[in-house]
Amino acid sequence: MTDIFKCTDAGSEYCPCELAGTLNCISCSLLQGKDTCDCGWNGVCILNEYYMSNKKIKEGRKTYNAQKVYCKDMGNNSFILKIEVQDELVKELKRPGSYVFIRPEDKKTYFDVPMSILDVEDDKFIYIAYQNTGCKTKSLNNVDRFLIRGPYWNGVIGTVNFNKLINTNCLVISKGIGQSSIVLPIKTMKKNGNNIVLFLDKGKLNRTYIFDFIDKEDVELYQGHIFESKNRIRRIIEEENIELIFSAGSDLVHKFIYELIKEFNTDIKFVTTNNNRFCCGEGVCGACINRAKSGYKVRMCKAQVNPKIFYI
After folding, report:
1. Where in the chain is the domain with CATH 3.40.50.80?
2. 3-state secondary structure 181-221
3. How confident is the model at residue 78 (pLDDT cuts 50, 70, 90)?
4. pTM of this prediction exceeds 0.85
5. Scanning 116, 184, 225, 271, which has its CA 20 to 30 A from the CA of 96?
6. Which strands make up the sheet holding 62-75, listed edge to edge?
């Protein structure tokens, strides 16, 4: 098997994309310049789509005008934005891992900053939680109109596992602003009848805000410092018979959790937030490229992989 991965855009209205046109397709070995088909079948033949469109790539994502509804200051330079945007975009941002690029209306494109979708409402509004960490995020403060490019879907790695499990027990571990990535996954897992155990570490944010978006009764809640709660998390995994763990924190948190998984059962499904650098969102610029332990280079803004490949 060559370095072929599932592309989150495969078969969508955005496929084939610029990567196909430059022989860098994530999912099609032939559109990587190889001699044989080795795609593992993703449900659609990207090569056929490419030739049927006369080797023309799809138009790509649109940029939408958006209006601020409110900006809630959570302290510690952290904010929640509620934004009104066209329904055609909002409808595509309900799946786990959804994100957009956002910038103030009067700023240049290099102010685009990727933001996870915290939640959506009435096919009309999106919620985004962020911290002021640099000029891009600071530019979002005190403005009323934005330009939003999307939809994008690869903000979470291993999302296929959310749909594989039914009526089982799942553990969600989140730290700080990582709470912004767990609402949509929790709602998806609950729809499949799964029980959710939530371990929250407030981190430097020192605040819990997700219960404005999910019901406390939908989860079994634990709170504490992740790195100081190794034995406690071990007990949760063992006593709750956990079959999936979703890590929503830094890469250090991901590695910490994966080491715990290895102690118990390597068959436990592992899902993580995608913390790689996103710049263009289309796999072209290369800013998001990460290297698996096996040596493969992976374009993480589009490639859906098993997160364990970065630790095995």
Report:
1. 156-275
2. HCHHHHHHHHHCCCEEEEEEECHHHCCCCHHHCCCHHHEEE
3. very high
4. yes
5. 225
6. 113-116, 99-104, 145-152, 62-75, 78-84, 125-131, 119-121
- CATH 2.40.30.10 residue ranges for the chain: 62-152
Tens digits of residue pLDDT in 136-160:
999 999 899 999 999 999 999 999 8
Cα(first)–Cα(last) distance of the chain, in Å?
17
Which residue, 310, 280, 312, 279, is CA-closest to 297? 310
State the Cα angle at 151 between 197 and 253, rounded to 5°: 35
Whether domain 62-152 has CATH 2.40.30.10: yes
* Cα distance between residue 8 and residue 30, in whole Å: 18
Secondary structure class of 278 (helix, strand, coil): coil
Q: How far apart are CA 8 and CA 27, in angstroms?
A: 9
CATH of region 156-275: 3.40.50.80
Confirm if 296 and 305 have CB atoms less than 8 A apart: no
Taking 80 as the threshold, does the pLDDT of residue 38 lie above it? no
Average pLDDT for 228-239? 95
Neighbours of 100 (CB within 10 A): 29
